[in-house]
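## retry 2 of 3
previous attempt timed out at serialization; input unchanged, resubmitting
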Amino acid sequence: MIFGRLLVGWMESRPEAMNGVDYVVGNPPHVGRQPIQHIEAIMDPPTQRT
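## retry succeeded, writing output
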């Protein structure tokens, strides 16, 4: 969530750098990457805690 906010903040503060960009995609690493699959961890929705 924090990484996403940082990324959006950067894109909004530098609109000239985003000219011509239609979408931004998280490119996942190969299956089984160790120690974690970092992009999947960033993009997974947060778990609801009770």
